[in-house]
Design goal:
35% of the residues lie in helices and 21% in strands. The chain is α/β, with parallel strands linked by helices. Strands 2-1-3-4-5 form a five-stranded parallel β-sheet. α4 links the parallel β4 and β5. The chain is elongated and about 70 Å long. About 17% of the residues have low confidence.
């Protein structure tokens, strides 16, 4: 088995850089180190052997172009991957250098092996899976000199079973599950939230630096207002629908049980590796976090409530 590729992450944002390092290591395919300055990166490159260096364009102590050129002078065999600024392409002066890959923010951790291997020049070939068609039934000809087979009647359709009566216990009848009715958020509230998206994003980024989540979502009804973390916009929108459905199902359960507010203030779903934690900020407004189960639950709740208090001023 080939040795795991050794990767150096260079990012001035300590939270994101360390999260990327952990994502690489947790994939099981790579070893990784993270530094937060270009000068420290050059020291590491001279002293150690790396297969790939990932450089964020937001590096503060040194121009990324200068660092790329210095890396090429120090050890020309190292492959280089760049992280562009959010919403921007790589500058032409960087494109003109020998760049082996681009890692665009935000990205899904599950996509890292594919993106990294492309930058390393050794993409993993996924198995080719073709749908298997059922084999046609064999039709045997009747044996020679045998009597002609009796005509075969088409099968008679089975009679439909009568509907089962609902099971009643006291006043409770068990029928089909109720239809979810999503909470309606006033249009002026959604407009106000979207009008303050820049400040909301800053608060979500502050929260992400503390808990390092896969995704942090601010949801109004079934609309994704803002996001932070490593999932793509499309993935966050899909998660938004799932969170909204889960929230409304929980609200109906709360009402059934006689919860005074008619909904639960917070909810938690736990798996072996991830948690999904949601905090209600008002009717139909949710702050939801999908993150590693290694983060202490007390810390998640504390940090989320602090950010929720600051977000409350945008809910009118």
């Amino acid at each position: 088995m080939a040795a795991a590729a050794n990767i150096l992450v260079v990012d001035s944002d300590e939270g994101f850089g360390n999260m990327l390092k952990e994502g690489l290591e947790n994939s099981g395919y790579y070893t990784a180190k993270c530094v937060h300055t270009g000068s420290h990166a050059l020291e590491m490159i001279v002293e150690q052997a790396f297969d790939l260096i990932i450089i964020d364009m937001a590096l503060t102590d040194m121009a990324p172009v200068k660092l790329v050129r210095a890396v090429r002078e120090a050890k020309n065999g190292i492959r280089i991957m760049m992280i562009p600024l959010i919403g921007q392409d790589l500058p032409d002066k960087v494109k003109g250098l020998e760049i082996n890959g681009i890692l665009t923010k935000p990205f899904f951790v599950g996509d890292l092996p594919m993106l990294i291997d492309q930058a390393l020049g050794q993409p993993k070939a996924g198995p080719s899976v073709r749908p298997v068609a059922p084999a046609p039934a064999k039709v045997s000809a009747p044996p020679a000199n045998s009597a002609s087979p009796a005509p075969v009647r088409p099968p008679t359709a089975p009679k439909a079973a009568p509907p089962e009566p609902s099971v009643a216990q006291g006043a409770l009848a068990v029928d089909a599950p109720p239809t979810l009715n999503f909470a309606t958020v006033p249009p002026q509230t959604i407009r106000y939230l979207r009008g303050n998206e820049a400040e909301i994003l800053r608060l979500l980024d502050d929260l992400n630096r503390e808990v390092r989540a896969e995704a942090i979502l601010l949801i109004a009804g079934v609309e994704l207002i803002a996001q932070a973390g490593m999932l793509s916009r499309v993935q966050c929108q899909e998660l938004t629908m799932l969170v909204a459905q889960s929230s409304q199902a929980a609200a109906q359960a709360a009402s059934f049980l006689g919860e005074r507010a008619g909904h639960f203030a917070q909810s938690l779903h736990e798996g072996a590796e991830y948690r999904l934690y949601s905090l209600s900020l008002g009717q139909g407004i949710l702050l939801s976090l999908a993150l590693s189960s290694n983060v202490p639950l007390g810390m998640i709740r504390h940090q989320s409530r602090q950010i929720a208090d600051q977000l409350s001023k945008f809910i009118i």
